[in-house]
Amino acid sequence: MFRLTRPLFYAARKTTTGITGLKVHHDPIPALKQTYESTLQTLSAIPQSSVYRQGAEALTLHKLKALEKANGDIAAAEKELDEGQIEQSLEIAQDELSLANKMLQWKAWEPLEEKPQPGQWQYFGKETTASTAS
């Protein structure tokens, strides 16, 4: 008798995502978990005071917990993550990892190299700063 493991069963069962350019992943849960962990590792190199790090880290931890809560069940993971198909979640996670690497390279948390022109951050008669933006 031929025994199918969960990833093989999933691959045998699902042949297309129905989304042009998005292929079915053969084993999406471990790949997604690895991507979330890599993102958290990359974010740890950004200063904790960075607003980007705080937001991205909180979101990634939330998604990682949701993935672990699904306990290897792809349908449950898709429902918990609420991002469409698991392949879409993997693509979103890879994009976030790529952005985290770029933010690390850009050092977006550092002050501007040049002072902004007077009125550059003024919109609709109000001055906007990081502390007043909502």
Brief summary:
By secondary structure, this protein is an all-alpha fold. The chain is built from five helices and two strands.
- The number of helical elements comes to 5
Rg, Cα atoms, Å: 20 Å
Count of β-strands: 2
Helical content, roughly?
Answer: 40-55%
From the N-terminal CA to the C-terminal CA, the straight-line distance is 61 Å
Describe the biggest sheet? 2 strands, antiparallel
Description:
The structure is a single chain. This protein is an all-alpha fold and 134 residues long. 54% of the residues lie in helices and 3% in strands. A two-stranded antiparallel ribbon has the order 1-2. Strand 1 and strand 2 form a beta hairpin.
